[in-house]
Amino acid sequence: DPVLALEGVTKTYNKGKPGAVEVLRGVDLHVARGEVVALVAPSGAGKSTLLHIAGLLDTPDTGSVRIGGDEMVGLSDRRRTIVRRNDVGFVYQFHHLLPEFSAVENIVLPQLARGVSRAEAQIRALDLMARVGVAERADHRPAAMSGGEQQRVAFCRALANEPRLLLADEPTGNLDPETSDTVFEALMDLVRSTGLSALIATHNMALAARMDRVLRLDKGVLGAG
Ligand code: ADP
Ligand code: ADP
Asked: What is the pTM of this model?
């Protein structure tokens, strides 16, 4: 089974009302185990909507969303939350780290919420941080770190609970071009070394070209990049 499979996914906001916006018109998308797929789309094309549906933060009007072969459409909110927590890691353009906690605590907390012991969570957090080169920032709060460092910590947090799927929305879009390249490289190394499957939205064609496959979202339909 693919790790992520969307079939015939449609989504219209304000359906049946004057302001209706047809965003997705029948999207089919598969991400295989260990595959890293780039999602390229002009602004407003429905990229965030697609990622939110894939990450179970939103539901399609019609179609199927399977994670690890299991159908997610029709599950209760409670069940969807469990799958989201256990199987999906999110990275956004902005880091969304908790400002009052240190970097390492930001990576430990989601693990504690899952019932991992503090000692184990700490070891895993520091290991992840070392792998993206921010171990020496463990005790710093987000505000005391550079943008690139904050994003690296956000990658570690996304991977803290060993998800099987990573969804990223412009993960380096907030950084200057030079920093963006090295931080993106760190993310790719981390994804490759864990064998994680990923769907990564980016406007940067050079970055997209480094992934296994490029998909283009245009007028609500997906095509090959
Ligand atoms: P992208 O991430 O590609 O910029 P989005 O998925 O955020 O695109 O949005 C696609 C379209 O749907 C845009 O025209 C946007 O204005 C519209 N849209 C997004 N969210 C909503 C919403 N909650 N209600 C109504 N329209 C929305
Ligand atoms: P945008 O693409 O509009 O800039 P962000 O990339 O900053 O938004 O991501 C914030 C989004 O995360 C919100 O749209 C929100 O719906 C979504 N979200 C809601 N709950 C969760 C959650 N539990 N984990 C991750 N993201 C969530």
From this structure: 0.89
